[in-house]
Design brief:
Layout lengths: L21 E8 L3 H12 L4 E4 L15 E2 L7 H8 L1 H21 L4 E2 L3 E5 L2 H16 L5 E5 L2 E6 L3 E3 L1 H14 L3 E3 L4 E5 L2 E4 L3 E10 L4 H4 L7 E11 L11 E3 L4 E5 L5 E4 L18 H15 L5 E12 L5 E6 L2 E5 L6 H17 L3 H7 L7
Parallel strand pairs: 1-2, 1-12, 2-9, 5-14, 12-19
Antiparallel strand pairs: 3-8, 4-8, 5-7, 6-7, 10-11, 11-12, 13-16, 13-17, 14-15, 15-16, 18-19
The structure holds flavin-adenine dinucleotide (FAD).
Flavin-adenine dinucleotide binds next to helix 1, strand 13, strand 17 and helix 8.
Length: 377
């Protein structure tokens, strides 16, 4: 089965791989949305920056995801409040709303803000929507009750979407213009304070940031148990006018998510839980089992018979609690990841925060993500 995201316009010019030893102030490992945000923050702090990726810019989840740009953590707001307390949960939500606005400006030609829908598939889920809306309203965040052709649930006016791959490529190109050195096909095999070893070269740097979501525990095995890699799968169709889906939709507690692009194509992801253990894997090949679930949902629930042009998958990692992993994983080695399937906004925030924490020694973003909630992380 092909494994190409529908997002790729085929216009990327590959970056070189690192073949010589180099020195920098900041070395960022991972050129997804989180690593690229970290790189931009490091450039703002006037650091000499090197960024490395084992594959291509956004070759991982950052360029292969559903394109939802959503406020908040992966956990629904009331669940985050129950875990973190109102003050901290609302501060993270507020920051993520502000970060959403900034992200939309990074690549405006491939971003839009039509609002997004959380749709309930059962009475229990509808009650969960009610609880989420109540918690959001109590803290002054916008949410509306919704009933329409997609079903019943909640409408988030700030819900947004983007082409995740083009957005990352845009960020990479502007980082290059600002003086960052970025290398593709440069796999890091070992990392310790001030030193990064790739398969062909060594980097000396004052600050080392690992910004890898899926497969994080491969590079930093000490994080096994804190994060766990899983595969998420999607499909995309040829443009169609069979349906009109004005806003991105997620449903069944967020397991499934779909949207209709300006071209008319539908993208759809989900059903990870249906395969039980097999999706807890570092493999990224799409499987017949999950793809059959997606196809059947596309045909029977969304009502689209258009040909499926793309099928793809990628690795993400899930953290133990509601917060992602954010910490000094080894002396002198900072790491972020484990966004539990919702990392476009939170990953960018963590990227900003981890650089501030490493370089300046303090960061209000880091403060929000680092202290452990009760009994978790
Ligand atoms: C199918 C799917 C749908 C999703 N939908 C959404 C969504 O709609 N909205 C949302 O917010 N989130 C979504 N997510 C999650 C989101 O994509 C991720 O949380 C986010 O992209 C993580 O970005 P990142 O930059 O932290 O990590 P990644 O995108 O994983 O980037 C890390 C990079 O590190 C590189 N790397 C790894 N190991 C090494 C090494 N040893 N040496 C050098 N480089 C290395 C990888 O090649 C990769 O490019 C989805 C994920 C998937 C897979």
């Amino acid at each position: 089965m092909e494994n190409t995201p529908l997002w790729d316009d085929g216009r990327w010019q590959a970056l070189p791989s690192l073949r010589e030893n180099v020195e920098a102030d900041v070395c960022v490992i991972g050129l997804g949305g989180s690593g690229l945000s970290a790189i931009h923050r490091a450039l703002e702090l006037k650091q000499r920056v090197i960024g490395l990726d084992a594959g291509m810019v956004a070759g991982g989840a950052a360029g292969r995801n559903g394109g939802f740009v959503m406020a908040g953590l992966a956990a629904f707001y009331h669940d985050a409040v129950a875990d973190l307390g109102r003050e901290r949960a609302s501060a993270i939500y507020q920051l993520s709303l502000e970060q959403t606005d900034k992200i939309l400006l990074e690549a405006p030609e491939v971003s839009r803000q039509p609002g997004s829908l959380r749709i309930a598939l059962s009475d229990d889920e509808l009650e969960d929507c009610r609880l989420e809306a109540e918690a959001l309203r109590l803290d002054g965040f916008a949410v509306e009750d919704y009933k329409g052709p997609e079903g019943q649930g909640l409408l988030f006016p700030k819900g947004s979407v983007f082409n995740p791959l083009i957005r990352c490529r845009t960020l990479a190109l502007s980082a290059l213009e600002k003086g960052a050195q970025l290398f593709e096909n440069s796999c890091v095999i070992d990392v310790k304070a001030n030193h990064v070893h790739t398969d062909h070269a060594q980097i000396s740097a004052k600050y080392i940031i690992v910004a890898v979501d899926g497969r994080l525990e491969l590079l930093l095995p000490e994080l096994t148990g804190q994060v766990r890699t899983a595969r998420l799968q999607m499909l995309g169709t040829e443009p169609t006018t069979e349906v009109s889906v004005p806003r991105p939709v997620y449903l069944r507690y967020g397991y499934e998510y779909y949207q209709q692009l300006a071209s008319g194509s539908i993208t759809l992801g989900g059903f990870r839980d249906k395969a039980k253990e097999t999706e807890w894997t570092k493999d990224i090949a799409p499987t017949e089992f999950i793809q059959n679930h997606l196809t059947s949902f596309l045909r029977n629930h969304i009502g689209v018979q258009a040909p499926i042009s793309h099928r793809w998958a990628a690795s993400v990692s899930y953290s133990k609690g509601v917060l992602p992993y954010f910490g000094e994983a080894r002396p002198g080695v900072w790491a972020i990841g484990g966004y539990s399937g919702t990392g476009n906004v939170i990953g960018a925030l963590c990227g900003l925060g981890v650089v501030e924490k490493a370089v300046k020694g303090s960061s209000s973003i880091a403060d929000l993500f680092m202290a452990a909630p009760s009994g978790l992380n």
